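Researcher: Here's the sequence for the chain we discussed earlier.
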Amino acid sequence: MDINERRDALRARVQQKLSGNEPEEEELVVQDTEIIESTTEGQDLLMIEETNGLLALASSLIFVGSVLGIITGLLLLQGNPAELLDGSLNQESTVDIYGVVIEAESGDSIEGVLIELIDRETNNVLQTTETNSYGYYQLENVITKPHILRITYESYSTVERTFSPSSATQTPFTLVEGNEVLKEDFTKESSGWSLENAIALSTGIALATIIAGIVGLNAAVNARRGTKYRRTQYLAGFSLFSRGFIVFGPFLILCGMGLMILARNEFQDVEVE
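Model: Thanks. This is the structure I predict for it:
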């Protein structure tokens, strides 16, 4: 660039400065409120992530505890109750029965009393025996189905007792003087729950356990979504009856309920008390 060009350029700059058209440099102005907002925004995001993490953890604990309850219920139903019941009822086992015969007035045992085991359906005599010197008798290999025991002794009334054989000692026979036939029915007596009742109770408990576990899954979903705080707590409380592996499932569910209390403000419809 020669001296003339430099002179022209200098003249143009002077004229531009005199005319006031020279562009001014822009200044960067940052207000205090913008600085405060930018610093607190990160903290708010951190708090939101923390509370959402509590709800997610609570949901996971309730979910796992409920699944354990469902598994427990399925294990209770693993065996087929119908097959167990049919097999137990149809299976004929044998037992040895024992008993004693005593005199009604004196209470002394009677020796030489004739004992007859009779088939209830055919009235056929299956076994016969007599009481020993102590008044005791024994019948071996008796099929566990209803039978009749006939007790006969001279000058005393005959006793015919209908019973279901068991390994326990039979109720003592008490003989009274006379020539009558006294009938006793011991098949109606029940010393406890029958097998049918026990199986029905076990099945009912298993079904209730599975239902409670399913309710717990619903509570876990509501906790993850953060909706209906009270309803979620009630459902989680009911799911405690799932009894997942006795104590492990309820413990996890209780931990989840505690975490929901800590993060209750994150639920959409929580009530302020």
